[in-house]
Prior knowledge:
Layout: E1 7-8, E2 14-15, E3 18-21, H1 26-46, H2 48-54, H3 61-82, H4 88-109, E4 111-113, E5 116-119, H5 127-145, H6 157-172, H7 177-193, H8 198-218, H9 220-234, H10 241-253, H11 265-268, H12 278-311, H13 315-339, H14 357-375, E6 376-380, H15 383-393
Antiparallel strand pairs: 1-2, 3-6, 4-5
Helix pairs in contact: 1-3, 1-12, 3-14, 4-5, 5-6, 5-7, 5-13, 5-14, 6-7, 7-8, 7-13, 8-9, 10-12, 12-13, 12-14, 13-14
Amino acid sequence: MGAxxxxxxxxxxxxxPQIKVGRSDLILLATVIALCLFGLxxxxxxxxxxxxxxxxxxxxxxxxxxxxxxVLGALIVAMLTRLDYHLIQRLAVPLMGLTLALLVLVLLRxxxxxxxxxxxxxxxxxxxxxxxxxIVLYLAVWLYSKRDHLKDIQIGLIPLAVIVGTVGGLIYLxxxxxxxxxxxxxxxxxxxxxxxxxxxxxxxxxxxxxxGGLVIQFSETGRHRLADxxxxxxxxxxxxxxxxxxxxSIVKGGLFGQGLGNATTKLEGLPLPTTDSIFAVVVEExxxxxxxxxxxxxxxxxxxxxxxxxxxPDMLGTLLAGGLTFWIAIEALINMAVLVGLLPFAGNxxxxxxxxxxxxxxxxxxxxxxxxxxxxQAQRPSETVVQERRSYSASVDWRGRNGRxxxxxxxxx
Length: 413
């Protein structure tokens, strides 16, 4: 199976931890199904007028495409749930090569929409969404393979910065600042989860902040978004039109909402109601209670995803499940925080809710991998699995570099 960590038992013979191959996490699966159905309901509500205007009078064009993408995504989930997640070790490099090729192709032959060149084939493919998924898969495999040498800056941090910088740089050239920022966030987070040295992590964050500041200063889009955000913090009524319409939707929603299909702001100027701004439509139609239900669903997804990571039989499973779960959570958090004015405007989609095939397929692929890992659970984590996690998940070197006494080993008081 490839999921066990081989060690020497006290008798000197090789042993593996007891691993149970069973059903996928049913709570996680039910939560994802609920999010997908909720998403279809909101696309149905938010898309008719936009579809009529953009797609030759067909009010169900966007909804029909979303259903098609969801069926395809469900098939991907079903397939990935049955495969051994260790196959990703062989697929990571080809997937990264394909992603880089698509990111270059979109710069050469991409279609301009909303002042950015991000899509291929009439908007059907958005390589930056694929890149977010693939960077998590690739870095999880790469960090797992380098787990014995992560504290060596020439083997750990510098190659990590090159990988993340290459992918993030190609995305920035589109320009897609929010997707590039997500790539850097996931790079730092996975390095932390893999047990990177705390000093190196802090250095990585400092450099990322400095580069981010320079990018904003030299990017017209970045400067404009930051200026709108700061203006809105000082005087909400002077916020950008996008933020004003979003806040209007939230105020109209009140506690219980206007009812499904009864939102008016989506018809009066709210930009991108089917994609980036769909959370505002959710709040207007379902109210504060509906928003809380949606946030609780994301919270349950994060809880179960981290449980899968905790119980994974090896560190590869832990990095994959943890990284993919955090990625979905970060996407959702950024989207919702932007629409209530807590963060500068970013183009992150709301997972499972926003219309669009690239994001939906990427997120459902991530879910399929996490569900697969949930099938391979260590019944009783062996001493070696515990030691592996302690060695490669600790963010601080507790064994002498910081001048403190070492941590007791297993079996010692």
